Amino acid sequence: MSHVGRLLGLLCLLALTACAGTGPTEPDAETADRIAAVLPAEAVQSGFTVAAPGVDEVSLQAFTDDVEEIRSAGGTWVRFAVRSYDVLDSWGEGDAMHWDEAALGRIDAAVDIARRAGLHIYFITADSYRSDVVGDRYRAMMEQYWDVLAARLGDRVDVWQVFNEADGTHFGTHAELPQPLPRTYLADLRDLLTLAGKTIKHRAPGVIVTTNAGGFPLGDVTEKRWHRYFDALAPALDVLAVGAYPQTDGTLISEMPARVDRLSESFGTPVIVAEVGLQTCTGCFSEDEQGSALSETLHRLADSQAVLVLVYTLRDDGESQFGIFTGDGAPKTGTEAIIDALPDGTS
């Protein structure tokens, strides 16, 4: 081969390497054991996202009711967030955060309630320090935030999601992001996720760390975005998590298992469908449409390589009507069909 040929070959190899990314790293032994125990690959499990329980005693009672509803439906997982504005009086000046101990106590109680009910916990910390602060100061404050929560919750949490759909909005400022995502942004996000994982596992070895990618509008463009996103971030994660919002499109619903399977096979990593749902409202979708489309989506995902499917949400909140129950707990017309379609964790 000529010098030119060898040079071209080298350039091609470098280009492929740059595009391919570094891929996922093997989880440590404790995390691998936890994944095998709570997210076995043999069958798809299910659960629901519910409202954050840290606001007040009313929210904690609602959480308790939600846990019982999930158990009655045959779900085995509950997904919920802790919100900084609930558990922090303020981020503080200097290095001192001001925590709301009563709110933290409610989070503690919620975790215990779910554990006593036999549910696994998918925990979310989506919030971020002040958007006008960057660099070392930002990292230090986020590290402290994760550290206090991890020290408090320990390994009672099974999966810990850091940030929320940071492929669509900036993890710090929440501003809409350009696509494809800038490499500098992905590098910064991967560094933060690596820091989060180390901080959480220092306090709670074996906790499964992830972040999620959005799933709307669902289609080829979104699937490609998943792959680019996790190509950069997978080394910092134990499992991958995505949203899935095919709405009522029968073709998109039928394609969901293949999209999940390609993602899992591409990275050799378990995939969680962290959100799947359909909103009901005047001008969007009816309760009957929710029941029909969401139950079909769940049936399809039960035959995928997903290890866990989480319905968004159990009941309506004050901002949206994604729940399969109304805000006061009444079932919608499609609730029974959706519950019947939940993957039951058996192969």
Automatic annotation (TrEMBL):
<protein>
    <recommendedName>
        <fullName>Asl1-like glycosyl hydrolase catalytic domain-containing protein</fullName>
    </recommendedName>
</protein>
<feature type="domain" description="Asl1-like glycosyl hydrolase catalytic">
    <location>
        <begin position="194"/>
        <end position="310"/>
    </location>
</feature>
<dbReference type="InterPro" id="IPR024655">
    <property type="entry name" value="Asl1_glyco_hydro_catalytic"/>
</dbReference>
<feature type="signal peptide">
    <location>
        <begin position="1"/>
        <end position="20"/>
    </location>
</feature>
<keyword id="KW-0732">Signal</keyword>
<dbReference type="Pfam" id="PF11790">
    <property type="entry name" value="Glyco_hydro_cc"/>
</dbReference>
<dbReference type="InterPro" id="IPR017853">
    <property type="entry name" value="GH"/>
</dbReference>
